[in-house]
Design a protein that fits this description.
Chain A: Belongs to the GMC oxidoreductase family. Chain A: It holds the Pfam family FAD_binding_2. The complex is a heterodimer of chains A (about 525) and B (about 160). Chain A has about 525 residues and is an alpha/beta fold. Chain A has 13 helices and 24 strands. In chain A, strands 1, 2, 3, 4, 10, 11, 12, 13 and 24 form a 9-stranded mixed β-sheet that branches. Chain A starts with a strand and ends with a helix. Chain B is mainly α and about 160 residues long. The radius of gyration of chain B is 19 Å and the shape is globular. Chain B is about 65% helix and about 0% strand. The N terminus of chain B is likely disordered. In chain B, helix 2 packs across helix 3 and helix 3 packs across helix 7. Chain B has one domain. The chains are: A alpha/beta (about 525), B mainly alpha (about 160). Chains A and B meet through helix 2, helix 9 and helix 10 of A and helix 1, helix 3, helix 4, helix 6 and helix 7 of B. Bound molecules: flavin-adenine dinucleotide (FAD) and iron/sulfur cluster. The site of iron/sulfur cluster has 14 residues of chain A, from loops.
């Protein structure tokens, strides 16, 4: 194959690598790998600071006109591993996005600021100072993404509110980054109206109008190190669900990894970068989720309406870990792959699909010694996988949450509650539920567990002994490598992470811009 | 990139129609990932997974399973291949599933017993195998619009103006 060679400033329009007929060699000032919550925010800030920035994304560049509200289409196209990514032991299902805009394309649009208690913990326990600087970007982004409280609640969310109200539990209204949302409920498949203010709709146009260039359907494979520096990035065109023939080499002054937790540390592991203190991929957090279903006599239709509008923090500081309660959108594939059982037992549940209310408990990992998160490693194919131990303390937290969720569901009028666990039955009273729960095995692949919040693995840390990047965002060992995505989180958050990722990426990009353009 | 509402609605409907009619109504039956041994196992198990469901075509479901496997990581595909190989080779089949006869000849009761055993096994590996197969089959069936009306799912809203 011949090679096309050029400076990226000559790229006039976003380039689809899968259409490349030749190998490609590009030169740029900064390359940002991954165009999700962290990558697009950082890339836009850099481009606006006048820095020639190339954004490289493995997924496709798609928008509202391509979104058809079909799970069978959206999962293979817009999710990592067709939405079938799992921890190495297959016990926890992991949802992460793919495409220009990353997980913001398919996320459920809930917006929370990082809790002050978490930032305080970072300062006092981990020596992470300077988080006051997150306030300004949070203010700015809330305006830009039209983040506002969503008062409407579909029945699925309404039941969370009602149950908490009856029991005197704390609950709240969720803020969402939407404009002109018609409450369709398909945020997880990409908003067909363009109402969700994902980053491809909001930041990408400004990025492209400034000094930003986009290369999509190009998968970063290796950061090549030479003498304490990254020398170049090797990437390859994506074709179908695999790789195409075109090889891409990118030479930059600075490399920013923003491929998201798991994939980002995976790329760095595959590149054999120095990691003298074995920090890379460590402390990867999931906010692991356990699930409780409930049947109501009236229709719930949890597939329609804004997916998340109510939450409860009543148990956020409960022993041993604390958990946050939310609800998910319920569509046929998601329900059918989450509910346990097979044959008539399973079918009976599916036949009441539109009466099904579902509640999630997100557990705060990363603070308790017995909830240290997982470790990313490479499998035989050189692909990243996450080893995530489910410790006794996590089980304790999961089972406390099964009970709390059931209590709220019964208080809201549920006819029956079904903890999502292979051995669980459908319980008609709180007494039955408690007895039932006592008999369930606390074992992986018995409880059905999930995560849509992968965090950590390239932790921010003042010292190289305890993390991968310094407080600016620069790699502790490699001078021209920076990280700006959810992998930099040193603990989980106890809230949905996108706003925190936006704010941290802004702060990191500002530090990098200052270094590259000291005068500005 | 900015489409008017109207355009967006139009392409939305056309797009979904082709998608709905496209992949699910092809009569030519072709598997890309499952080999005949793997297909035989799924053909035997699909009716057990879906028992209680009124109408379905094993072929459609099998094709969906095959398509889904195509979108998985190479390592996951290899694991599935290994699983179906072990479940096909007579000695390991008997050892792992309790089935003497080939999958094509197994009785419903035997197949159900196998699924139950794996679902509740002491070994996480078997439970993972069970859940992996269950997910593929259930996602294939319930991702197909044919299965929606019976569960009260109206399908995506029609965005007409
Ligand atoms: C279904 C779902 C619902 C969610 N709901 C919410 C919510 O309501 N509120 C909230 O706050 N958070 C939510 N989240 C989480 C939130 O979206 C993520 O925490 C956040 O987007 C993480 O940002 P990131 O930059 O780390 O990664 P991502 O946004 O995932 O972006 C990473 C990008 O890098 C690309 N990439 C990966 N590897 C490579 C490679 N080798 N080469 C090139 N590109 C690569 C990926 O394709 C992806 O586009 C949800 C997530 C999901 C999946
Ligand atoms: S709920 Fe609103 S933001 Fe989500 S897909 Fe529907 S219209 Fe779009």
């Amino acid at each position: 194959m011949n090679i096309t060679q050029m400076g990226v400033d000559r790229l006039r329009a976003p380039l689809d690598a899968s259409a490349l007929a030749k190998d490609l060699y590009l030169e740029t000032e900064v390359v940002v790998i991954g165009s999700g919550a962290g990558g697009l925010v950082a890339a836009e800030a850099l481009a606006k600071a006048g820095i020639l920035t190339l954004l490289v994304e493995e997924g496709d560049w798609v928008g509202p006109q391509d979104f058809h509200m079909l799970e069978s289409e959206a999962y293979p196209r817009l999710y990592q591993e067709s939405a079938s990514r799992k921890t190495a032991d297959k016990a926890i299902k992991i949802l992460q996005g793919k495409g220009v805009g990353g997980s913001t394309l398919v996320n459920w649009a809930s917006c929370f600021r990082p809790p002050q208690t978490v930032l305080d913990y970072w300062r006092t326990e981990l020596g992470i100072t300077g988080t006051e600087a997150l306030a300004a970007p949070l203010d700015r982004l809330e305006k830009r993404l039209n983040v506002n409280a969503w008062d409407n609640a579909n029945a699925n969310n309404q039941k969370l509110e009602e149950g908490c109200q009856k029991l005197g539990y704390r609950w709240g209204v969720i803020k969402r980054n939407v404009a002109g949302c018609l409450d369709l409920g398909y945020c997880g498949m990409g908003c067909p109206l363009g109402a969700k203010q994902d980053l491809a709709r909001t930041l990408l146009p400004d990025f492209l109008a400034a000094k930003g260039k986009l290369l999509y359907r190009a998968k970063a494979l290796k950061l090549v190190e030479k003498g304490g520096q990254i020398d170049e990035l090797l990437a390859q065109a994506v074709e179908g669900s695999g790789l195409g023939p075109a090889q891409i080499r990118i030479k930059a002054q600075v490399y920013v990894c923003a491929a998201g937790a798991i994939s980002g540390p995976g790329l760095m592991l595959a590149s054999h970068l120095p990691d003298p203190h074995n920090q890379l991929g460590r402390r990867t957090f999931l906010h692991p989720v356990n699930i409780s279903g409930a049947f109501f006599s009236e229709p719930i239709d949890a597939f329609a309406g804004a997916p998340q509008s109510r939450y409860s923090d009543h148990f956020i500081n409960a022993a041993p870990l604390g958990f946050k309660l939310e609800v998910p959108p319920v569509h046929p594939i998601l329900a059918a792959t989450t509910l346990d059982g097979f044959g008539p037992e399973f079918r009976a549940k599916m036949e009441r699909f539109n009466h099904l209310q579902v509640m999630l408990a997100l557990h705060k990992d990363g603070f308790h010694a017995d909830a240290p998160g997982g470790q990313v490693r490479l499998n035989d194919y050189g692909r990243p996988v996450l080893d995530y131990p489910i410790t006794p303390t996590l089980w304790e937290s999961f089972f406390a949450a099964y009970e709390a969720m059931g209590e709220i569901q019964f208080a809201a009028g549920a006819q029956a509650v079904l903890p999502i666990h292979e051995q669980a039955k459908t319980y008609k009273t709180m007494g039955e539920l408690k007895t039932g729960l006592a008999g369930l095995e606390r074992a992986p692949l018995m409880a059905r567990l999930a995560s849509a919040h992968v965090m950590g693995g390239c932790a921010l840390s003042p010292r190289p002994e305890t993390g991968v990047i310094n407080l600016d965002g620069r790699h502790h060992q490699l001078e021209n490598l920076w990280v700006a995505d959810g992998s930099v989180l040193p603990t989980s958050l106890g809230v949905n992470p996108q706003m925190t990722v936006f704010a941290l990426a802004t702060k990191i990009a500002d530090a990098l811009a200052k270094e590259l353009r000291p005068s500005v | 990139m900015i489409l008017s509402r109207r355009d967006c609605f139009k392409t939305g409907i056309l797009g979904s129609l082709t998608l709905v009619l496209g992949p699910f109504s092809t009569s030519a039956f072709e598997l890309n990932w499952l080999d005949p041994k793997g297909a035989a196992i799924f053909r035997a198990l699909i009716p057990q997974f879906l028992e209680g469901t009124e109408v379905y075509a094993v072929q459609d479901v099998l094709e969906g399973v095959d398509r889904a496997i195509g979108g998985l990581e190479p390592a996951t595909q290899a694991e599935l291949r290994e699983l179906t190989n072990l479940l096909s080779f007579p000695l390991t089949r008997f050892f792992l599933s309790g089935l003497w006869s080939p999958w094509e000849e197994a009785q419903a009761e035997q197949l159900k017993a196998f699924l139950d055993r794996w679902r509740n096994s002491r070994f996480a590996l078997f439970r993972a195998g069970y859940q992996g197969m269950a997910e593929l089959v259930m996602a294939s069936y319930y991702g197909n619009p044919n299965g929606w009306s019976a569960i009260g799912y109206p399908g995506p809203p029609v965005l007409s103006k």
